[in-house]
Amino acid sequence: MLMISPRMASGMQEKQYTPSLLSFFIYNPTFGPREGEEEKKILFYHPSDVEKNEKIRNVGLCEAIVQFTRTFCPTKPAKSLHTQKNRQFFFEPEDNFWIVMVVRNPMVEKPNKDGKPPTIEYQEDEILDTVYGAVVRQCYSMYKLFNGTFGRAMEAGGVDLLTQKLEKFFYRYLQTLHLQSCDLLDVFGGISFFPLDKMTYLKIQSFVNRVEESLSLIKYTAFLYNDQLIWSGLEQDDMRILYKYLTTSLFPRHSEPELAGRDSPLRPEVAGNLLHYGRFLTGPTNLKDPEAKFRFPKIFVSAEDGYEELHLIVYKAMSAAACFMISASVELTRDFCEQLDALVGPQLTLLASDICEQFTINRRISGPEKEPQFKFIYFNHMNLAEKSTIHMRKTASVCLTSVHPDLMKILGDINCDFARVDEDEEIIVKAMTDYWVVGKKSDQRELYVILNQKNANLIEVNEEVKRLCATQFNNIFFLD
Amino acid sequence: MSEEHYLELSENPVQFEHASSVNNVFFDEANKQVFAVRSGGATGVVVKGPDDKSSVAFRMDDKGEVKCIKFSIGNKILAVQRTSKSVDFINFIPDYPHTEFTQECKTKNASVLGFCWTNWNEIVFITDQGIEFYQVFPDKRSLKLLKSQSINVNWYQYCPETAVILLSTTVQGNVLQPFTFRNGTMSKMSKFEIELPVVPKPAKLSLSERDIAMATIYGQLYVMYLKHHSRTANSPSAEVVLYHLPREGTCKKSHVLKLNTTGKFALNVVDNLVVVHHQSSQTSLIFDIKLKDPDCAVNTHQPVLPARSIHPYRIPLSGPAVVPSQPPVPCQLSSKSHIKQVSIWTKTAQISKLLYADAVWSGWFPGYLWYLQVKLPPTVNLLQDKGKLMDFLLRRRDCKMVILSVCSQILDGGDKGSLPVVATVFDKLNQVYKEYLEAEQTYTAAMESGASRGSAAQKRPIRTQAVIDQSDMYTHVLSAFTERKGVSHKFTIAVLMEYIRSLNQFQITVQHYLYELVIKTLVAHNLFYMLHQFLQYHVLSDSKPLACLLLSLESTYPPAHQLSLDMLKRLSTANDEIVEVLLSKQQVLGALRFIRSVGGHDNVSARKFLDAALQTGDQMLFYTVFRSFQQRNQRLRGSPAFNPGEHCEEHVVHFKQLFGEQALMKPSTV
Amino acid sequence: MDVEGQRPMVSWENSTLAPVDRLRCERADSPTPGLVEGTEPGAVHQSAMFVHTQSFEDLTAEAEEAQREAELDQTDECTQELKALVVGEKTIEEQHNNSDISSESRAKEEDVSSEAWRSHRKHVFVLSEAGKPIYTRYGTEEALSSTMGVMMALVSFVEAEKNIIRSIQADGCKVVFLTKSPLVLVGVSRTCQSDKELLRELQYIYYQIVSLLTLTQLNHIFQHKQNYDLRRLLAGSEYLTDNLLLRLDRDPGLLLSAVTCLPLASSARDVVSSSLQTAKAKNLVFSILLAGDRLVTLVRKKDQYLHHIDLHLVFNLVGSSSSFREGEGWTPICLPKFNTAGFFHAHISYLEPASELCLILVSTDREDFFNMSDCKQRFVERLSKRSAYQAMKEALKCPSYSVEQVGIPELRHFLYKSKSSGLYTSPEFPHLYQSDEEQERLMGLYQDLHSHLHHPTRPLRSFYRCSQTENLLAWVTSGFELYLCFSPLGTKALAVSAVNKLLKWIRKEEDRLFILSPLTY
Question: Where do the TM regions start and end (chain C) (predicted)?
Fold first, then answer.
């Protein structure tokens, strides 16, 4: 991934390279304990075309690092290795299973005159451990969502099955990683909730309850609007990763069709008439055609006894999406789908337009959004609620931020400081570019504000943030 | 089967000596009195009212056979008709002349059909040629004609509570002319015509008195016409046609009650329901003219419930029972006519002539008089459509417990209703509930504003049993429901949310105990994330009790702490509570910073915070807090020292021990 | 990035040994961030006495290159130096014998597999590129040879990939590698210091070792014998490293790359300086008068600058041993920032047996002992005639001042560094921070602020932190660096006003707190 840097050297142009994925591998040291068996340890290796011995060497280094670190803190395993050229991130999601991601530091290529090879300068302090550490954990969660734990695969089919699954999953998944655009939001892995008035919310509640009553197969339901969550019957952590999948993978793939319908309130003439905009995002693409084969993706969520396997039905009408989860043990027939379509389609369409109306009303009340002096990121560890005015809509491909990467990194630095102690803290810094960056941590909440008031002083900045809290967060308890 | 009888007779009937050659029995609908006149009154007259104390007994001279006998309102004056020309009066007012006096009807060679009291001293004679309206002067023992109207009358009917007299005129008798009386004035209402199924040729009286009745239903006066089926006209079965008779304006045909059968019928109005008794089948039907059923044309009504017989009645052994003991007797109509003028009367006291004209309870000997009343519990199982059932119940008088039982029933495992049903039921209840609340509101508003303007015309809205409020639902239905075992918690929560949704829909502020119920249920099933989401969208509105409940959950669910703090913050009246919470979490600095942010720092108790700081055992914290209060003192009083009133002596000592004398803030002389 | 952005990142090539001639501006009463370097409070009138430094980055600068050339023609001198060293070494040996053993023995006998050993806040290891142990802060080198072997293995494994190992991160523990051929230094820390901070400390240790042997020496040894056991040469000098590590945890000077002065009326100080100035000799390069860890004055040869690191090494040498009290010490010392290739010879003596005042005379000639001794005599004679001597002794009674004097109740402590003079001032630790733990904690906070402000790629102008124990404000301008510690109940408004008030106060006090007019011979 190459992009021309904002800063240009005088005279000749230098090339800036963003961080990129060097390799990604998964190993289990207990699988090849004896000399010459090292290769057996390796369960997955990307890029696959790497020469065998190099694979073994790299895995060896990781083992050594982990081992060595144990001599100083037996309890806390190594998390990352910093070198001049790259950083390696270690994660042991299950006993003896290690996931390692190697990321190349961003670098600048300075061309030399008279045909000397260009000199390369590695920018060693650009990558934030917290961000990429989170990315690795996310990789695992995503695998687990669709495949269950490594251990499960081992029980089911031994190493062969596991390696198959890993190959199958990560081959595709790694291509969707966009390391250059990872930032604080990946650390939070939060959920953006859709702001909604009480009454409409209650309507959705009774919609969900009624559907679950009349289609008793349904075990859990989740409800989203505009890619933002409104209701989750799943537990928080499962929802977190499912939400990630929906918003960064599934929805973007299907976004085009309903763009037409989006945000245009319409209501079918007679209630309960059959004209509706409902359609399946997973499973049958066309109900009319009885021949068409279909299957729903299976997901794994936590349950009292470990995990349970579920069909994931995602059904969407205009901007409203409902996820229905049904125990994987039952066979989902076509007429169940038709039944669901007939029941949910009209109601969901109706709800969608209700929500949309409500939404536009609220927006009218709140008045037109004028570009404020500040941008902010909010996250609440308690309910994973996340809000960012820095990020434009986060899509599968890239997440666009509206501020300079360095500022984003400063946010990251502050976040690390907060992570060190779990007490309330506030940090206000002035960058060399004269931007002010404010970090607030109150109870389980974190708020980061970037102010573009170069001439303001500490006091004015503080006032500005207070004002922000009063307008955006007046309904929550934020220690001053 | 018996629990299906939705009509029954009142517990204690009025007993009287039954009619015989020597004993005449009369009934006065205005005062609900039964007169037993033995041998023309010579051997005594016994008057019995609905309750025992209102019964009177006296003698009067036998001046020939008594045709009609009635007290004026309040038993002031007794009127007796013995001839077709005149009516005799007797004062019953203490120390007034007791001897009878007589009034002849003014119209020449007209014969008096009957009379009715419209007041304690106003009486109307109805003759075959018109009506005469008199005022009675008991002291002078004379009457004064107030007004009269000449018109050919076939028969008449009187509706006491509206004081309306209905006259049947014209040859066919189907043109009805109502008059209304109010303190001394008689006004003619617009006449109207009952359309007959067949117009007889040659014309002859064809609208019989027994087919017409007047009744007030839902506060409106109606004329009820029992329209028999006739082969000629294509009316396969009989029906009751209701004509609405407004005080002003013309009378209009308003409702048609389909009886779906033929034969002899009797009508009552009970609790605003029209009850139709069918003789041959010994069953009764009930109609509710407010109950619209969609599958019928407008204002045509089918029976609310399938036909059922009246609940069998056991004659009380006590009292002057003629026969020692009796088996419970099925109530049935028979055409065998023993006596004139015995009647069932109903709580609404609407007499049904149609019934008593020739109906008696056979197998039952005369001398008893019952109220007819509606039993609601059986209706619950007879009316499957719960929505319709609610509409029906909500208009009945003693409906509360039944409604509540219905609510519990639809939530119960057995034949529990689906959520949509539950929803409609809740909505119907809250509809009524809301209307009442609004009435209350406007009333109080009017009172407040009225108090100033001195116009207290409004009268307080009466709270009927149909008003089922949140505490009713809580105590009788929901709390029990949530405790019930073997109900899927999904359903339990869904129901609670439905109720809250319904309340919100009618903009009724939800009581916190309902929220607590929700929370307890969620907690009981470890559905904390659900709870969290509800609070997040403020579905459970804020209140101090709720905030405290949340706090109490913290041990099992730590986030509850944050949630409750947020709530307290939103309440904006709970700063003290917030401080307490923070202190309880040993967040002394947080508490102080908060107090400062809300500008309360200068008047908090130093001691409270110093104690809290001391408890944490954190010396640095104690130092910080101590110094900050010293500075406050400096700022407020120009000296860092504490006032004796603040009781911080031991803290000062402690501070010195920890950090030494010199660490104390010196009075700055600036 | 603008000019300000660059500044903290300039390595000291930009400020070489040659004096940097600076703008002379009016000294404003109340300094502002716009203030031109050299006019901030504490800025020197004439050119500074130190190699002028902006920040610790100069530590990472490869000064060696310059020396490399010199080496070859110095080798023979070097061998002579080696003899001298042995002399010097003896003296050190003696010193350490009668210096407190405790610090030694405490550290050494430890079970390196024990939890106690593991949970030390900060480990430091020095090893040769052959993986031979040279120094460990805790435990014995012998016991750790295998561990150090692994360390070396990791280093060379990564090197084999044409890459350089920097650090390993684990929760609450990090391992930092610094390869300074022929040495490898490894720090293992449980503190929340940044890698850069830890590297800086390893640099100090590296220079400490170089100062005992010279780099030339070091390279020479390992060129000849790859797996030479350097401990044989360093035996007895470990306590210097131990002490240096303690200083790194406690002494703000090492953090700020600056030294602090004994508060003294400028009149008195000038007299002392001039007295030193007159007591000069041919080979005398630096005359340094210390009061404990505080500089009283420093006189230098024209055009010769002393780097603060070298000065701190001298401080460490003097402060680490009591033996110099017994008379005049004469020891060779390499000042690596001045020249890693050769030795200077330091004459170290206290003005009076009981006194804190210690005079260090640095000569280039190892035969110069008696000249130096003579210089001292002349200085003492001259000085003792003057009232300034008394004044100085008086000043010794209160070598520091209390923060109360500034008159800001919420202000608990601060550090102020004048960039141009390389001097800093700071009040004594308040009651609240009397214990070592508290002092080290506070230092830790300062270090944290410091590394935020001087982040290698994301430097900051100012940093304010409001926490549960303190409110901290750090502010760096072209002229100065300022670190303040407030009560956690202090407000931001207070912080802002406090800064101005404090700067005014320092300006008022500057001629007591700083050396405004350093002298040369």
Answer: none
